[in-house]
Amino acid sequence: MLKKIFAAGVAFFMVTACHHGHDHQYYTDDKGELSEIIPGSQEDLTINVGDRVHFMKNHSSLSSDAQETLKKQVMWLQANPDVVVTIEGHCDERGTKAFNLALGERRAESIKKFMVAHGIDSTRVYTISFGKERPEFYGHNSTAWAKNRRAVTVVTD
Fold this sequence. Notes:
This protein has 157 residues and is an alpha+beta fold. The chain is built from five helices and six strands.
């Protein structure tokens, strides 16, 4: 119990300290521990901007919601000029492996084209398709399928 109170106090001190002349942000990581968000990191992109967009079945065109997220990603990339990203194209489980690999590539490429059209140098954006091989949500229903039809922007190390 004393450890929890101490940990809460340390966390409070860290968060409070960041409001006195520091521009740091923190988040709770997968282990429930307080972690600093490093500008230009994957956590920064994911938490402060959004790292993914979703697609309609068998489509690679960008919805208005996707375009809004991508505009934020473009601004983030402009603010972090040394960051290089890879766009991962994903599909749901339906369709053949070959079809989904091609569709995932079209999805990733549509995002790269959007970013380049909005001023990001093409050498900073790579693409890869995983087709249906890396589902984020398991299930054989419309909810899982909708969440798996996505493209994810990943900060390249």
